[in-house]
Amino acid sequence: MDAKDLPLGRLATFLNQIAVFKPDLANLNELMAFSVTTGCLHVLISNGIGVWQRLPGLHRGRSLVALSHVGWIMVIAAVYSIGLTQFLKHPELTPLLLYTIGLGLLMVLLFNHDTPWTLKGF
User: Fold this and answer.
1) Which of 19, 20, 40, 71 has the fewest other C-beta atoms within 10 Å?
2) 102: left (phi over 0), alpha (psi -120 to 50) or beta
3) pLDDT tens by residue, 16-44
4) What count of Cα atoms within 13 Å lies in the side-chain half-sphere of residue 87?
5) Nearest to 10 by CA among 105, 2, 55
6) Taking the alpha carbons of 87, 91, 93, 97 in that order, is the dihedral positive or negative?
7) DSSP-assigned letter for residue 49
8) How many CA atoms lie within 13 A of 13 on its CB side?
9) pTM of the model
10) CB 85 within 8 A of CB 94
11) Which residues 6+ apart lie within 8 Å of 37 measured at CB?
12) How far is CA 111 from the centre of its chain?
């Protein structure tokens, strides 16, 4: 009996046939780039869903938490872009991206809670 005849072997063969991207496991740089890109896309999509879910509150002026998710999108995209600019040897965009990170983190800080700002706890 061959390994391809076993159920797990058939599944592996099927997955190998439908794979869109097959990273070279021997090339560590390619594998790391694939992993970081996948992670960034995952976080960007999840924050995009957060914006989408909180849009009704933003339109009615009740909640600004959607802007916090927009801030996280700005931060993750800018950090990923800084990594690309360093990798591709084009550092001239770095100052703009650093301002984008600062603005994104400020949005996260200001709009992360539904409750109004008070000095009661200080």
Assistant:
1) 20
2) alpha
3) 777 766 767 777 777 888 888 899 999 99
4) 10
5) 2
6) positive
7) H
8) 9
9) 0.72
10) yes
11) 80
12) 19
How many C-beta neighbours within 10 Å does residue 39 have? 12
Provide the b/e sequence for 78-92 (b: ≥16 CB within 10 Å): bbbbbeebeeeeeee
Q: Computed from CA positions of residues 92, 95, 96, 98, in that sequence, does the dihedral angle turn out positive or negative?
A: positive
How many C-alpha atoms does 103 have within 13 Å on its Cβ side? 12
Amino acid at 1: M
- The Cα 54–Cα 49 span in angstroms is 9
Count of residues making up the chain = 122
Model confidence pLDDT, tens digit, residues 58-100 = 777 677 888 999 999 999 999 999 888 887 777 777 888 999 9
